[in-house]
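Researcher: Re-running this chain for the archive, since the previous output was lost when a drive failed. Same request as before.
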Amino acid sequence: MALSTPSSEHGPLDDPLVRRVAVDSAQLLADSRDLLPDAVELRRRIHSEPELGLDLPRTQTKVIDALADLDLDIRTGTSVSSVVATLTGELEGPTLLLRGDMDALPMPEDSGESFASTVPETMHACGHDSHVAMLAGAARLLHDRRADLRGNVKFLFQPGEEGYHGARYCLDEGLLEDPAVDAAFAIHISPNLRAGALATRSGAMLAAADEIFINVIGQGGHASAPHLATDPIPTACELVMALQSFVTRSIDAASPAVLTMASIRGGTTTNVIPEHVELSGTLRTVSESTRAQVHEGVRRVAAGVAAAHGCQVEVEVKQGYPVTSNDDGVVRFAFDVLGDLVGADAMVEIPSPVMAAEDWSYVLQRVPGVMVMLGVCPEGEDPAAAHACHSNRMRLDEDAMAIGIAAHAAMALSYLG
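Model: Regenerated structure tokens:
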């Protein structure tokens, strides 16, 4: 995916191979650890009162309170409860965007933590509470180093990442303007990566995610006389299998697609053939060309299978987040900067895209940037077996948040030094 740079007099990384400004990594880590207790306390307060979607008033208040004593230009969203805080450096220069998402998931919590969610069927199971806390800590760390900044840092506390397109609302409200953003950096935690490790890759890192809804329409009747009806249930079953075969037989394995029909709903009792059956599922792709190819193929296969059985079919493809694509130059910059911070052994190059999705992708379509995964596997657990993001039992090693605070700050100090 081609990435473009917004109009600005400052080039983000005109030569991505140029040596960045060195930072004192040891001191940065030490100062981050000093800030860790406050970050943990903020994370736990957010965790115990999770909120969903685009309107997060309690979380927004907690963020503003955490930044209140800092000299920042703080703006709140008008259509969503975002917080954008800008730190202006001592000298003029480019602007780096740092981001932490704020929303939780609609699910129960069974983590056993003492600060577990007090809101029924709502949990911070994807680590967004830690993202907010690390970013607030980084704002404080960089505020104390304002004299070292040649340019600006924008801190985006964003709602609505979990399927609500929150980043797109923030972009529509002028996130990349006043001052114009030149590059962007975000961290996402992973309990399935050893604590303190950092991982990323160039190009496609996370997939595009679309939803597929198919309604197979037949003719209802008595279950004892299927010849007098047009049964949509076997048609729907055959369609699921045909869609799986379509993906494996028609899509280039070098540009993969994952199609999962996750729900089948139809029928009311044992002796009635229903009139229709509803199928729904998800599609994940890592290129826009493959994405379009699968969209067309799903419609074609559904129409063909339905016609073969005398049924009708309605297909809706609801487009979700685009591919999250990291800029190669910024990735190399990040490996250089963060390798100094945590050591080369703790820097991991992800070998292939992960089929999860992120609305950070909208930002990376507009400015060169990168998302980095921070390992937070709980102490004593095997990363391969730890409860993953979106698990009702997900936990994280809070000590690793100090690495996240320092990573945000190191990227800003190196880029704006």
